[in-house]
Amino acid sequence: MTRKKQVILGAYLGGVNHHTAWWHPEAGSQIDFSSFEHTARTAERGKFDFFFLAEGLALRERAGKVFDQDIVGRPDTLPVLASLAAVTTHLGLAGTINATFNEPYELARQLASLDHLSGGRAAWNVVTSFDAFTGRNFRRGGFLQRSERYERAAEVIDALRTLWDSWDDADIAADPATGRFLTRPDAGAFRVQGNQLDIHGRFTVPRSPQGRPVILQAGVSPEGRDFAASRSDAIFSPYGSLPEAAEFYKDVKSRAVKFGRHPDDIKILPSASFVLGDTEAEAQELYREVRNQQVNGKTALILLEQIWNRDLSAYDPEGPLPDIDPDPDAPPFIQGRALVHQDRFATVAAWREIAEAKKLTLRELVVDQFERGPLVGTPAQVAEQIDSFVQNDGSDGLIIGSHLVPTGLDEFVDKVVPLLQERGSLREDYTGTTLRDNLGLPALPRNPGRDQGALPAATG
What phi, psi does 336 have (nearest 5°)? Predict the structure, then answer.
């Protein structure tokens, strides 16, 4: 009998967009450490693989003023994850850090240090940026050309792997008389040269428990898929339903093979929210209530303003879509939010057809198009949805989040996790000692410094 695929589970804590029910009477702080700790401990109790934090490098703006629809502010990612390492034992700790504005030597030190502090549980979600709005916060003094962002990201990842591999597991030995000492004179020596980088020196952090922290990435374009397939250990999928999810899954896995990797060397992970009820009808009613509160009229207009790149405040959210075209050449009206829909005109045309076919108002269209593929139903129904989706190669797992911070994940862990375990799709307990082990990723060489000699940049 073929063994069932094991469902990979990540937990994310919302807080930088309209998906979080900040108005809920049970909602907690987005800044207090207790919120991060509660979510992480709950995820570990549910045998999740990792806890994930997104990050924004600038406060979002609308027409030059800070959004009043966002939950504003969050502590820096790495200190939060380092603190969580002290209150968890097995849970992976994944953080979003920008490869465009951060320097590889510093990144390599921070992530290797987190891997040491956590006993091998660090992961890096690689993101890029090309907008001057974010870039002005950094000494780079502006932005990187869009055409160069993946080039720099690739060089940064390869540089980090070169730095991490400049040490091996046997480079430090203990001497009873003199203390610890280096066994290889050139331990930590590196040189990285490329179009974006030219650095050399000695890396100061010995090889960490994982050797290399896990690399996560998101990408939908052919370039983004190739980037992930060649260098990442996991890619975030935007598809939460079949058959689109299965097509993305198959495409990324086949691209990995073309880069000389095994299909299982990269994991496919979409995000999903959930709403549970004692009956399906109760769950659907609660879902409609939450969804309508998340996307009120003002929120709907703001989400569309990014596509139209215009002030749409004069339009009625309960009326039809704006009858004007987008203005892509105007200065950005919404800043700090990633633009997913690159072709504004094609997006608007498609939305008008959908709104007409489904008889949707402006707000209803936003609800319809900006959903995250929620899991809605009884605990048994949600467990079945997750298991069926993964077993049919829609993904290798899911990154689960709740609209209620920080206690929303408790319900999933208490009611859905046991059902997944009963189905044989989720482990009863952790089996590995590192995040890489628990994700089922391939083992790395123990002595890359000796094995690789000149320490070439990694290619995947």
Answer: 100, -5
Q: Calculate the alpha carbon distances from 81 to 129, 160, 357, 413 in Å.
A: 23, 19, 46, 21
pLDDT in tens, 215-231: 999 888 888 899 999 99
Whether the CB-CB separation of 45 and 280 falls below 8 Å is answered with no
Q: Which amino acid would we find at residue 339?
A: L
Report d(CA 279, CA 188) in Å as an integer: 59
The 10 Å Cβ neighbour count of residue 174 is 8
Q: Kindly report the number of other CB atoms within 10 A of residue 241's CB atom.
A: 12
* Spatial separation of the C-alpha atoms in residues 191 and 211, rounded to whole Å: 19
Tell me how crowded residue 281 is: count the other CB atoms within 10 A of its CB. Answer: 11
Tokens describing residue 166? 């400049």
Tell me the sheet residues that pair with 235: 217, 268
* Predicted TM-score (pTM) of this structure: 0.91
User: Which residues contact residue 138 at a Cβ distance below 8 angstroms, ignoring those fewer than 6 apart?
Assistant: 101
Phi-psi region of 397 (alpha: psi -120 to 50; beta: other; left: phi over 0): left
Q: What is the C-alpha separation between 408 and 401, in angstroms, rounded?
A: 8
What is 8-275+374-452's CATH superfamily?
Luciferase-like domain (3.20.20.30)
Tell me the residue type at 229.
A
Q: Where are the domains of the chain?
A: 8-275+374-452, 296-369
- Other Cβ atoms closer than 10 A to 355: 18
Each residue of 401-437: pLDDT tens digit? 998 889 999 999 999 999 999 999 999 999 999 999 9
DSSP for 28-82, written as a single string: --SSSHHHHHHHHHHHHHTT-SEEEE---SS--EETTEE-SSS------HHHHHH
361 contacts 320 by C-beta, under 8 angstroms: yes
